[in-house]
Amino acid sequence: MTPTEEYYLKIRNKLDDLGYLQPLSFESVLLVDKLLEDLLNTKKGLQHYKNVAQQSMEACSELQAGVGPFKVDNAKLIKENNDLRQKLLKSREAIEDTKVGPNKKREEPKVDKEQML
């Protein structure tokens, strides 16, 4: 068997393994070999990036699971902070009421809504 025939059979076997059973002429062997090489490289690259994506998804899931308790704590702390802020404002109003006295008119304190949030 000549080297050309061996090369042809090598390419033919690769194509058969991949399920490409169509006829292959000797004239197109070089082109088919290059295309087959590109196909296999692309397939390897695709598999690599699928693995990278899977690892990224797993890492993201782990991070999200770790953040869960902090979200609960954060919600509790925000509520506690808002409650304390309201108590502080009421205490300030009570102090102002005692300073102003019963007969004098008291000015309403100007509270910025953004500060309350």
Automatic annotation (TrEMBL):
Its main location: cytoplasm. InterPro entries: Centriole_BasalBody_StrucProt. Keywords: Cytoplasm, Cytoskeleton. It is found in: Cytoplasm, Cytoskeleton, Microtubule organizing center, Centrosome, Centriole. GO terms for cellular component: centriole. Residues 90-117 are annotated as: Disordered. Belongs to the CEP135/TSGA10 family. PANTHER family: CENTROSOMAL PROTEIN CEP135, TESTIS SPECIFIC 10. This is Uncharacterized protein. The lineage of its organism: Eukaryota, Metazoa, Ecdysozoa, Arthropoda, Hexapoda.
